[in-house]
Design brief:
By secondary structure, the protein is α/β, with parallel strands linked by helices. Helix 1 packs antiparallel against helix 4, helix 1 packs across helix 9 and helix 4 runs parallel beside helix 10. It starts with a strand and ends in a 9-residue tail after the last strand.
């Protein structure tokens, strides 16, 4: 079985500014909603989590053992802020664990070891980006969460059939009350059916558990460590979309992520495979 650890970037709000024509997203609302899935074999769950434990001990020092877990949580935005802070001669004071990264070489050492995690375990990575501004422009009246999970299910199902001889898979994510409520309404299935109708090849959705397993990060110590990788991917994919090209700063770990992104089964390219963008008319980054 493959376990796909999921996380997201941005919000799923489609609120618009009153009185604006054409419609514009309300100020403060994210342009993109990005959902990522980092897939690893169930047999890799324990050693991968332990590798991340060890990495934190090496780079965050005593905080990795004594401080609350959130003080040493690895997130894409924390890596960016840490790299920016030390480059300007300052420290990232929060979360507390990042105080140990008091020089550029220490930040680079952490980034190198995180890159080795991706290179060693070679997860199968998918990312779905919903361009909400383009949805407004093209009158796509669909819920971004539903679109993102529908695309994720499509890609995972096809990969499981093609690469893993029809083995099973499951999506694991942090507890998300709004996402859980959305699945319970049945709207997720409605959107998935709608987006599947136009596909020349129909995915075998039986290969993917119908909804994510939402875990409590206070209890699931292994899983919360691995979900950090999905956060890093989501942050880097969002930056790639904003720039229209791949970020080249080490803190984004793009080179390591790109090597793990699944390629499209027909074109052999990352776009449309490991990285999917909705709607299709949305601008695609040059990668």
């Amino acid at each position: 079985m493959l376990i796909f650890y999921a996380d997201e970037y941005g919000d799923h709000s489609m609120l618009t500014t009153p009185g604006m024509t054409p419609l514009e997203l309300k100020n403060g609302t994210s342009e993109y909603f990005v959902l990522t899935g980092v897939g690893v074999r169930d047999t890799s769950r324990k050693p991968l989590a332990e590798s991340l434990f060890k990495l934190k001990k090496n780079h965050f020092g005593g905080a990795a053992l004594a401080a609350p877990w959130g003080e040493t949580e690895i997130k894409g935005r924390y890596l960016f802020r840490a790299a920016r802070s030390v480059a300007s001669g300052n420290l990232l004071a929060s979360p507390v664990g990042y105080l140990a990264l008091d020089s550029p070489w220490k930040v680079n050492a952490l980034l190198k070891d995180l890159g080795l995690i991706f290179s060693t375990y070679r997860p199968l990575v998918f990312a779905v980006a919903v361009d909400k501004r383009e949805m407004l422009r093209t009158n796509k009246d669909l819920h971004p969460v539903g679109v993102a999970y529908a695309y994720m299910h499509q890609r995972i199902a096809m990969a499981m059939e093609d690469l893993y001889a029809g083995d099973a898979s499951i999506i694991v994510a942090d507890q998300q009350t709004q996402h859980e409520a959305f699945f319970r309404t049945g709207k997720m299935n409605e959107i998935r059916k709608l987006l599947t109708n136009s596909l020349p090849r129909k995915p075998n959705y039986g290969l993917v558990l119908d909804k994510p397993l939402w875990v409590d990060t206070e209890l699931s110590s292994w899983d919360r460590e691995i979900i950090q990788l999905a956060d890093i991917v989501a942050y880097s994919v969002a930056e790639c979309l904003k720039r229209g090209k791949a970020p080249d700063e080490p803190c984004y770990l793009w080179k390591e992520i790109e090597r793990s992104l699944h390629v499209h089964w027909q074109t052999g390219k990352v776009l449309g495979g490991g990285l999917s963008i909705f709607p299709r008319t949305a601008r695609a980054p040059k990668i």
